[in-house]
Write a structure and sequence with these properties.
379 residues, alpha/beta, Helicase, Ruva Protein, domain 3, Zinc Finger, Delta Prime, domain 3, five-stranded parallel β-sheet, two-stranded parallel ribbon, 8% strand
C-alpha cells in the first residue's frame, strides 16, 4: 500500500518523446530549443489531462539541462534535471493559480523574478490554472510579462483560454493542445499493461478511452480503478460494470428488433435496461451513437471515424448491411427530438417508449410513402 503510485504519476512523461498525442507541440518546442529562438512567455491551452503541465515541466527541464541530447530532450541525469525531479530546484518554480490567485501572491512572484539565477542560465516560472488569477493579479503581472529579465521564462497553463485578458494573451506564444485520440490512449494503456503484467481485452481498453473523452489523466485514473477491481485480467464486462456503461449488445439486439418491427421485444429490452439501473437519457445517447456508427460503417471513406475495437467494428459492418440510410437518418432525427424534450417531460419513460415505437415502424412508413409517390407518378 505504501509503495503504490497511481498510473498518472508513475507513467508521467519525462521527455517530449513520451508525451502522447501532442506531437505538433513537442516538435515545435524542440525546434525552438535547437534554434535558440525561445520565447520568454508561453501559454499552453487545452482540455484537462492532455499534457499541458507535463509539457511545461519537460520544457522547464530542457531549458536548464546541462547535457541536452542531439534532439534537445532533457537528459534527466544532470544536477539540474535531478534536482527538479526531487522538487529541489532553485531555478524552476511552480505556482498553482487556483489557490494562489491574489495580488499579493503575484507580487511575491514578481519580487522573486528580480533576482538572477544562482546556477543555470534561466529561472522558469510555471503558473498552472492561470485563468483563476483575479483581475488585480493579472494587472500586477502585466509589466513583468511585457518586459521580463533576460533570464526569466514564464509558462502559463489553462483549460479556459477565454477567461484570460487580451493583454496577457498578446504577450504570450500560444500553444493549443488537442484532445487525445482514442487510439493513442488505447496504445498507451496497452504499453502500461505490458509493463505491469496485466492482460486486458482490446474492447475493454477502447471503452476506457471513450469514457475518458480525450484526457489521458482521466483514462489512467479509470484504468487504476478497473485494475483494483479486476486484478491482472481486465475484461470488457469488468469495465462496463464498474463504469456504469450499458453493454453494446443491447444496442445491436434492439436494432435487430427494429428491423423485424418487433415492438414487444423492444419495450421488454428497454424495461430490462431501466431495471438494471440505467436512465432513459443514457439509453437515448447510446442508441443514437449506435445508429451514427451504423451510418458511417456504410461508407469506406467514413469507416475511420469508427472508434471501437476490431471485433465490435466487424459487428457494425454486418449490421450496417441490414439497414438503410433513410431509416437511420429518420431514426436519428426522432432520437434527437426525444433528447431535446427529455429534460422537460413529466413522463420521461413514456417519451422514450413513444420514440422507440416510432422508430420500430419507420420502415413501414417509408415503404408506404414510396408507394404513394410511385402511384401518383403512374397516374
Amino acid at each position: 500500500m505504501d509503495n503504490f503510485i497511481v498510473s498518472a504519476r508513475k507513467y508521467r512523461p519525462v521527455k517530449f518523446l513520451d508525451v502522447v498525442g501532442q506531437e505538433q507541440v513537442s516538435e515545435t518546442l524542440k525546434k525552438a530549443l535547437s534554434s535558440g529562438k525561445l520565447a520568454q512567455s508561453f501559454l499552453f491551452c487545452g482540455p484537462r489531462g492532455v499534457g499541458k503541465t507535463t509539457c511545461a515541466r519537460i520544457l522547464a527541464k530542457a531549458i536548464n539541462c546541462e547535457n541536452p541530447g542531439t534532439d534537445f530532450e532533457p537528459c534527466n541525469e544532470c544536477n539540474s534535471c535531478k534536482s527538479f525531479a526531487q522538487n529541489a530546484s532553485f531555478n524552476i518554480f511552480e505556482l498553482d493559480a487556483a489557490s494562489n490567485n491574489s495580488v499579493d501572491d503575484i507580487r511575491n512572484l514578481v519580487d522573486q523574478v528580480r533576482f538572477a539565477p544562482q546556477a543555470g542560465k534561466y529561472k522558469v516560472y510555471i503558473i498552472d490554472e492561470v485563468h483563476m488569477l483575479s483581475p488585480g493579479a493579472f494587472n500586477a503581472f502585466l509589466k513583468t510579462l511585457e518586459e521580463p529579465p533576460s533570464y526569466a521564462i514564464f509558462i502559463l497553463a489553462t483549460t479556459e483560454k477565454h477567461k484570460i485578458i487580451p493583454t496577457i494573451l498578446s504577450r504570450c506564444q500560444i500553444f493549443d493542445f488537442k484532445r487525445i485520440l482514442d487510439k493513442d490512449i488505447v496504445g498507451q494503456l496497452q504499453k502500461i499493461c505490458a509493463n505491469e503484467g496485466i492482460t486486458a481485452e482490446s474492447s475493454a481498453l477502447h471503452v476506457i478511452a471513450q469514457k475518458a473523452d480525450g484526457g489521458m489523466r482521466d483514462a489512467l485514473s479509470l484504468f487504476d480503478k478497473i485494475v483494483s477491481f479486476a486484478g491482472k485480467n481486465v475484461t470488457y464486462q469488468d469495465v462496463i460494470s464498474n463504469l456504469n456503461i450499458l453493454d453494446h449488445d443491447y444496442y445491436f439486439k434492439i436494432t435487430e428488433y427494429f428491423m423485424t418491427e418487433d415492438a414487444s421485444s423492444i419495450l421488454t429490452a428497454f424495461n430490462e435496461i431501466i431495471n438494471n439501473g440505467f436512465d432513459g437519457e443514457m439509453f437515448l445517447l447510446g442508441i443514437a451513437e449506435h445508429f451514427r456508427n451504423l451510418l458511417i460503417s456504410k461508407d469506406e471513406k467514413t469507416v475511420q471515424l469508427l472508434e471501437v475495437a476490431e471485433d465490435v467494428k466487424e459487428r457494425y459492418f454486418e449490421q450496417a448491411k441490414l439497414t438503410n440510410e433513410t431509416f437511420l437518418l429518420n431514426a436519428l432525427n426522432i432520437l434527437n427530438q426525444c433528447d431535446i424534450e427529455y429534460k422537460t417531460s413529466k413522463n420521461k419513460r413514456l417519451l422514450v417508449e413513444l420514440a422507440l415505437l416510432k422508430i420500430c415502424y419507420l420502415n413501414t412508413q417509408i415503404e408506404n410513402a414510396l408507394s404513394i409517390i410511385l402511384g401518383e407518378k403512374k397516374n
